[in-house]
Amino acid sequence: MAAPYRVALVAFPGIRAFDVSVITEVWGPDRTDRGAPAFDLRRVATDTTPVPMRGGLTLLPDRPLGWLTDADLIVVPGLDDHLTPAPPPVLDALRRAHARGTTLAALCGGAFTLAQAGLLDGRRALTHWNLIDLFRAHHPHVTVVPDALFIEDDNIWTAAGTAAGIDLCLHLIRLAHGAEAAATIARSMVTAPFRTGTQAQFVEHPTPRTDREADSLAAVREHAMRHLHEPLTVADLAAHAGMSPRTFARHFTAATGTTPLRWLLDQRIAAAQRLLERTDLPMPEVARRAGFGSEVTMRQHFASRLATSPRAYRAAFSAGAPASAPAGSNPMAR
């Protein structure tokens, strides 16, 4: 049996309780009876003194900073006060971890901590949309990407606020362990298993303006999921919604934060991932069922969106594949 995937939650006074809860809920419970990977989540700090958080909560660290050398993934929670200085030993440990090639991830205002360490200078990063001006003012050498849920640069991941932290955590599960593992954990958390980092941080109309519009957009997404294997176009989806293509695209983007074409491609990639993990169907049949039309097209989209090939993905994540290798040797690790 493979060793559990080791995740470090970096703790120091001022970290945000919500982000701590997200990290703990994603990597903490034992879900191996449902087919999820085994994780070893540790709360890492400069010492074992209880870490105070807002609302009278405390977090009890269980490992010193030295444990970061054993971690496969290091996650930094956001901050209640986004200018809270991290302890110098924490910043030093994060710098050393990145130099070793360990994957780092920050949720929401946790990007401020990585920026304090100088790890984001000259790199692309993001944080909550309401903190972007503050972030730019204090860290002018970081290239801020304002309109996304999460982003990666040089094995450093940053995420937007609140729910986007859940999206990033599930995405990191997907990269290291496959789409089925991420879906299993998402089902346990009763949350959406798949929102891409390219989606907007917030949608134009969180509450649709009319029930008719809400029903039509929900119905068209359901229709598309049932007919992914067909050569659907935006015009086809618009016709199903009873709208012109331009009007449909505008309402769809406002309601979901992504375009119909990108959403459709995301669903097809996710469908192909499930087929590659669960079945031994030949590649042309996987491509057909996922709606790509040809293996060549599917391979091109896997390369551009997942930085791997369908065959490499199947080798890493199919039910008959060997247990997960360390992140550094995983074809999906970057």
TrEMBL record:
It comes from Streptomyces pilosus. This is AraC family transcriptional regulator. PROSITE patterns: HTH_ARAC_FAMILY_2. It comes from the Bacteria. PANTHER family: ARAC-FAMILY TRANSCRIPTIONAL REGULATOR, HTH-TYPE TRANSCRIPTIONAL REGULATOR RV1931C. Keywords: Transcription, Transcription regulation. Residues 218-316 form the HTH araC/xylS-type domain. CDD domains: GATase1_AraC_1. GO terms for molecular function: DNA-binding transcription factor activity; sequence-specific DNA binding. InterPro entries: Class_I_gatase-like, DJ-1/PfpI, Homeodomain-like_sf, HTH_AraC, INH-QAR.
